[in-house]
Task: inverse folding
């Protein structure tokens, strides 16, 4: 197991390195120099421009800048965010917990709903319930997340006002007791988490549904049926157990969807996380922040896949024995 | 169920493509024209507005119209204005009175939403199609190069694919637009440049599985050049799966384009795309729900149709997966 872990890590680390390199190349190829960005529209004499270039190290040859860039990224020194008036790393550190909370809740949401709906629709195969769920999951998958968010606000914050439409706390949260604050947070969390998780829940539903139908066709299920195992136990005991294992893989695959989705969902719900930070940075042309959140989002995805691989190997010995981790 | 779904999807895609192509000749209003910012602001779907036609053929919209002496008086907001009978088409209110229908209503600028939605389809589908074609081209190029050369070229190209694939797509697209500026062209290029990876893997896999076949070995032994080998012997069998991949890619691309537009990084206004129509309707959501709702529905229906079509085509190509 440790060997397997090390091998997966050997894949993940160069991947991050590659992403940092790719971003560096994109930066270099972009029109205009970083000095133009610092100066904006101000006109300065050439020697001032040269002094700024020297101060930031832009006058160095590209390979040296590349090495410095990698070093800086590795140490987490990502520059100064002028839109938040603090170091980019601190802005990120402040924005990370809300995003983790939101994405974590969304994941919980799509796991529970995806598996339950997928299994239930497989149990109702051939009936109208199956069709309805299939249709709904198809639709949920095809909706832009931000639009679903707007519709959710329209329905559940305006027409039937049960959930708040934006932000993470009520304005009176400071005066509440601890339990009250927690309840307030949960109330604010439900809509954005459900919206963020909807596409993944749909994918999960379809996946578990197909997996259950596959499993039901397997000889071991037929054998169990022959032994007189009840249909209910066949479904929820035998087939579900078989269908749920590959779900771990799908959790890994759904991470990029969650991370990308948080970018727009946080904007819709004014959730003070990384997506919101990125959006503000776009509006104020704070490219350094966009860069940093992109790297962090990628790190998320890579780490998530690493964990999914490990969980899979832990749950299913065949995986770690078969491909040893190297593709 | 499957077959009807497939036919429905095909009909939808066909209808949409027809509307998108024929938009200028469908007799729609001009999508970017602010018809009347006062009277026609945020008209609900399927509503009519009073207007009189003037001698020059243009319409003057009004909240209320009444006859007065030799002419008509129009109320626009709190003000009344007067048009003499000589200025009316047909010379009288009875002949000049019009009540045009706004099928999907209007937005806050008094622009016709049906026209914008259909012209938006034109822009969104055009972007999706072009970006998907670019992705297929790039992917085929990378996949063929990797699959044919093998060795370190293959390793480098496939690691590159892994790297690009591990950056969440929307973030990558946002970063690219933030660095390279915002326009229709960048939108297409960025969307194409962030979605070639699946096609590359697909083509490479196909080539690897065919490379050792006898007929390929024979062609190679006969001295067929690699580019010709790829074109004539290897790629044809990858064509159909590639087309399916392309169809599914168009749907994905429309979704990402919508997100980019929503973040203000897509096609610049006033040109309508479904994404920036939703973005424009966002602030008026509670008072004029239809502005943001309709384009979202259009996106959903389109992506579902593309998805159903792509899946049905994939099942036809690969009957094994149809069993489940």
Result:
């Amino acid at each position: 197991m440790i060997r397997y872990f090390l091998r997966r890590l050997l894949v993940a680390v160069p991947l991050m390195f590659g992403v940092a390199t790719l971003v560096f190349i994109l930066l270099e190829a972009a029109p205009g120099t970083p000095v133009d960005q610092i100066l904006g529209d101000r006109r300065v004499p050439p020697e001032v421009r040269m002094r700024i270039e020297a101060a930031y190290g832009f006058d160095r040859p590209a390979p040296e800048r590349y090495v410095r860039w990698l070093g800086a990224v590795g140490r987490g020194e990502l520059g100064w965010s002028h839109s938040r008036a603090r170091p980019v790393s601190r802005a990120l550190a402040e924005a990370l917990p809300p995003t983790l909370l939101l994405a974590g809740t969304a994941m919980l949401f799509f796991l529970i709903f995806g598996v339950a709906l997928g299994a239930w629709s497989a149990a109702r195969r051939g009936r109208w319930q199956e069709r309805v769920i299939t249709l709904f999951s198809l639709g949920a998958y095809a909706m832009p997340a931000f639009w679903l968010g707007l519709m959710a606000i329209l329905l559940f914050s305006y027409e039937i006002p049960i959930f708040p439409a934006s932000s993470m706390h009520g304005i009176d949260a400071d005066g509440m007791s601890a339990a009250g604050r927690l309840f307030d947070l949960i109330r604010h969390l439900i809509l954005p988490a459900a919206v963020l998780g909807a596409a993944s829940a749909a994918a999960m539903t379809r996946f578990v549904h197909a997996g259950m139908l596959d499993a039901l066709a397997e000889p071991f299920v037929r054998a169990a049926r022959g032994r007189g195992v009840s249909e209910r136990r066949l479904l929820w005991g035998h087939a579900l157990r078989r269908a749920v294992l590959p779900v771990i893989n799908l959790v890994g695959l759904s991470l990029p969807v969650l991370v990308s989705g948080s970018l727009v969902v946080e904007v819709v719900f004014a959730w003070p996380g990384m997506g919101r930070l990125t959006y503000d940075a776009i509006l104020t042309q704070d490219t350094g922040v966009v860069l940093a959140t992109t790297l962090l989002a990628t790190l998320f995805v890579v780490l998530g896949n690493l964990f999914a691989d490990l969980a899979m190997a832990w749950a299913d010995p065949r995986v770690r024995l078969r491909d040893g981790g190297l593709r | 169920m499957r077959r009807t779904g497939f036919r429905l999807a095909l009909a939808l895609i066909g209808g949409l493509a027809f509307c998108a192509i024929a938009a200028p000749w469908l007799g729609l209003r001009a999508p970017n024209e602010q018809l009347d910012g006062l009277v026609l602001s945020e008209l609900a779907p399927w509503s009519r507005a009073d207007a009189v036609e003037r001698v020059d053929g243009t319409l003057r919209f009004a909240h209320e119209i009444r006859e007065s002496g030799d002419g008509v008086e129009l109320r626009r907001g709190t003000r009344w204005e007067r048009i003499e009978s000589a200025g009316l088409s047909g010379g009288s209110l009875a002949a000049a009175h019009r009540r045009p229908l706004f099928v999907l209503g209007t937005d806050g600028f008094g622009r016709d939403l049906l026209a914008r939605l259909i012209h938006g389809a034109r822009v969104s589908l055009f972007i999706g199609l072009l970006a998907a074609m670019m992705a297929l081209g790039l992917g085929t190029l990378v996949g063929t190069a990797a699959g044919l050369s093998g060795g370190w070229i293959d390793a480098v190209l496939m690691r590159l694919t892994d790297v690009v694939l591990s950056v969440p797509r929307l973030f990558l697209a946002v970063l690219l637009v933030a660095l390279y500026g915002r326009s229709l062209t960048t939108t297409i290029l960025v969307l194409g440049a962030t979605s070639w990876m699946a096609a590359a893997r697909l083509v490479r896999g196909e080539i690897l599985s065919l490379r050792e076949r006898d007929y390929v070995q024979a062609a190679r032994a006969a001295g067929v050049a690699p580019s010709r080998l790829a074109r004539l012997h290897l790629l044809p069998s990858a064509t159909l799966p590639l087309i399916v991949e392309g169809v599914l890619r168009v749907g994905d691309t429309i979704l990402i384009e919508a997100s980019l537009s929503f973040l203000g990084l897509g096609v610049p206004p006033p040109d309508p795309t479904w994404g920036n129509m939703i973005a424009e309707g966002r602030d008026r959501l509670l008072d004029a729900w239809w502005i943001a709702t309709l384009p979202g529905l259009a996106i959903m229906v389109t992506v579902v149709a593309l998805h159903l079509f792509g899946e049905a085509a994939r099942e036809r190509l690969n009957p094994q997966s149809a069993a489940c």
Q: What stands out?
A: The beta strands of chain B are 47-48, 50-53, 59-62, 64-67, 71-76, 79-84, 97-98, 101-102. The CA atoms of residues 73 and 79 of chain B lie 10 Å apart.
